[in-house]
Amino acid sequence: MTEPPKSEGSEEICPNCKKPIKEHSPEQVMECTRKLQEDKSQA
Length: 43
Ligand SMILES: [Zn+2]
Hints:
Layout: H1 26-42
Residues 14, 16-17, 19, 24, 28, 32 line the site of zinc ion.
């Protein structure tokens, strides 16, 4: 069994505010997710 190498740049960047998801508070994550979904439904 071989484990895949850990990629250093595995930080998820929020497409909404361009900040790492890690730096979001749970509330911020919910808000950004909602905004992104609204964008999708508008397009
Ligand atoms: Zn965000």
